[in-house]
Structures are given as C-alpha cells and as structure tokens.
Amino acid sequence: MSFNSTNVLETVKYFVEDIEDPVNVIPVVLLLLCFLWTGFPRGRHTTLAWWALFNGCIIHCWMDGVIGTTGRGPKWMVVEYGKLDARYWKTKDPTVMMVSYIEIAIMGPLCILWYRAIVKDLWWRHFMSIITSTFQLMGTFMYVGTEVYDGFKNVPLDWPPSFDSFEKVFYFWTIFVFANSIWIFVPSLIMYQTLREMNDVYNSPHSSSKKQN
C-alpha cells in the first residue's frame, strides 16, 4: 500500500477549510476565560467539572449554538450538521432553532457558572446541577421528540435496522440515537446523584443536631 500525499493533503485541506472564520475562536476564548476565572478542574468532582466545561464552551455555545444555527464554522462540521439533521441551518426548523438559541443564551452560561461552582465547591453547586441538567434533558427531549413525532423526515432513518450504509450507521445510530441518549442518561444520573448528596447533607447527624438546637 503506497503513501498518497495528494490524498493526505486533500483530507487536511477539507478539515481546515474555513478554519479562519472568527466564530471558531469562540470555544478557545470561552475555555481560556473559564480557566482564568475559575482555574482548572480539580477536587472530588473533576469529571463533573469537565462535563460542565465541555458542554458550556463547546457543545452549547459553539457547536449547536453557532454552527447549527448559522452554518458557520469549520466546513466539515457545517457539512456534518447538514447531513445529520436538515432541521439545522439548512431549513432552520423553528423548534430546533429555539432549542439552539436557548443553548447559547441560557444553557451555555449556566454550564460555565456550574463549572465555577463545582471547582470552587460553592454552596449553590447542587442547585446548578439540577437546573442545568433539567435544561439539558428538556432540550434533548424537544429535539429528539419533535423529530420522532414528525416521522423522522429530516434524519437518515434506519428503521427497521438494516445497517446497510455508513450514513445510516453513523448519522442515525451513532449520532442521533446514541449521542442524544448520552444527554438523557448523564443529566439524569447527575440529578440523581445530586439529590442523594443533598439528602446526605441535609439529613446528616450534624444538620439534625442543628435543627434540634
């Protein structure tokens, strides 16, 4: 198997096309601001902090919030959004656009505040866990549910499962089904664990003695 430099260059060119668009600095700037304002993830809840940071700076504010709604960003990501779901920048479906605008205006900032609360172990950390995870669940249910209700008209449906093409396996099963399931399972798990932590805090012997006094 010979090395084909032309193919490599074409691949690199594809992935860096439109990389100079100013919107591509959004996640970098947000990450730097978070690190300067709060510091790096540390402590008992490092994984949770990374989850909040990743969602706030990359998913909500950049990918869904900017690329999905405007069609601006690295060309390969813009193309992939169009292939995944025609409701994004191609047709600007009102429901998906509203979810995306909520992501960039509310969910992104909430995640950044949540990240700070986690890293600094602030008293309102549990509140932010509940409210941010609730928004994520709501957004996922609205995004997926409306497409299910509409009969999967905008995604490469593969039902009954055939797995007969890359597009169906990747865009439907991997992205639409599996990836969206993550944003149902993880927020649900976070809410459950947060409620357990709150129960331990407010029903601990120390808090009980305070109430008696």
UniProtKB/TrEMBL annotation:
Main location, first listed in the record: membrane
High-level lineage: Eukaryota, Metazoa, Cnidaria, Anthozoa, Hexacorallia
GO molecular function: C-8 sterol isomerase activity; cholestenol delta-isomerase activity; steroid Delta-isomerase activity
Domain EXPERA intervals: 44-191
Any one biological process term the GO annotation gives: cholesterol biosynthetic process
Protein name in UniProt: EXPERA domain-containing protein
Membrane association type: Multi-pass membrane protein
The species this protein was found in: Pocillopora meandrina
Keyword Protease: no
Protein family: Belongs to the EBP family.
A Pfam cross-reference name: EBP
Domain of life: Eukaryota
Keyword tags: Isomerase, Lipid biosynthesis, Lipid metabolism, Membrane, Steroid biosynthesis, Steroid metabolism, Sterol biosynthesis, Sterol metabolism, Transmembrane, Transmembrane helix
